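In the design runs reported in the main text, the only information available to the sequence generator was the tokenized backbone. The following block is the verbatim input for one such run; it is reproduced so that readers can re-run the procedure and compare outputs position by position.
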């Protein structure tokens, strides 16, 4: 069995529609995927409908990736199998979406006023699927499309950073709240790509008090040594291990699809299912 438990669509900062993600996953030989868009769950129902209508053979896990900021660190919390109708979960998603919209509108005003870059909020909004999660990649693309920079990379280096006078930091829920809400909604909270967070070890231990149940050991950024480190960490602290490609788009450098290329053992999905059953019983 081939699994990839971390995939994005154009409902956040991915390049593919849910339908194209399904077809690509099948072409890549995947049996199980999780759709984990940032701060929304819209792609799941679309993908499931597509699978049913076209008799596709692919299992999809309901997932999400909540973007949080804690002590100036961006901490991402993955959630799997939560009851998405849970009122606290819905409120968290709503809060996160409103924070994204506020950030984009404030930055639009500052880009016009301080940088002379004439963009409108709608120029950003149209770059994401309807009701999807507006984020920094969309703002950077809108800046570039308006001729403010020569590339998206330049837009990031000039405007999408704390030192820029036009950058507005997003107000988010805490990783503690994200874990607690996902857990209380019957889901499995997982610390995503811990290699990105210097305080990941101590924070993960702290988040266990708020429902954290897993850590993403397998990730395209993780070397074999890092995979081994976080696998051992998970075993020591009683956490489950998850993993995925964190797919957003085909590789620009190599012209290839990276979905499913990151090796994730099939037992990872088995352990995720066992944890789901354990939570249902407890």
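Verbatim output:
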């Amino acid at each position: 069995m081939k699994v990839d438990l971390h995939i994005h669509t154009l409902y956040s900062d991915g390049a593919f529609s849910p339908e194209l993600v399904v077809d690509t996953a099948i072409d890549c030989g995947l049996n199980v995927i999780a759709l984990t868009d940032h701060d929304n769950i819209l792609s799941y129902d679309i993908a499931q409908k597509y699978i049913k209508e076209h008799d596709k053979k692919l299992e999809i896990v309901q997932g999400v990736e909540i973007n949080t900021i804690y002590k100036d660190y961006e901490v991402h919390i993955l959630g799997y199998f939560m009851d998405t109708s849970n009122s606290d979960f819905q409120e968290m998603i709503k809060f996160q979406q409103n924070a994204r919209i506020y950030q984009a509108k404030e930055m639009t005003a500052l880009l016009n006023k301080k940088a002379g870059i004439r963009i409108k909020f709608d120029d950003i909004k149209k770059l994401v699927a309807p009701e999807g999660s507006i984020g920094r990649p969309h703002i950077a693309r809108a800046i570039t499309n308006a001729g403010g920079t020569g590339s998206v990379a330049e837009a990031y280096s000039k405007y999408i950073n704390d030192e820029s006078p036009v950058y507005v930091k997003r107000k988010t829920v805490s990783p503690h709240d994200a874990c607690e809400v996902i857990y209380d909604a019957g889901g499995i909270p997982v610390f995503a790509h811990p290699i990105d967070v210097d305080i990941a070890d101590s924070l993960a231990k702290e988040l266990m008090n708020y429902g954290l149940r897993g850590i993403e050991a397998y990730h395209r950024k993780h070397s074999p040594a890092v995979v081994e480190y976080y696998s051992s960490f998970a075993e020591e602290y009683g956490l489950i291990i998850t993993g995925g490609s964190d797919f957003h788009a085909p590789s620009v450098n190599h012209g290839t699809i990276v979905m499913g290329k990151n090796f994730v053992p099939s037992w990872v999905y088995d352990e995720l299912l066992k944890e789901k059953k354990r939570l249902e019983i407890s």
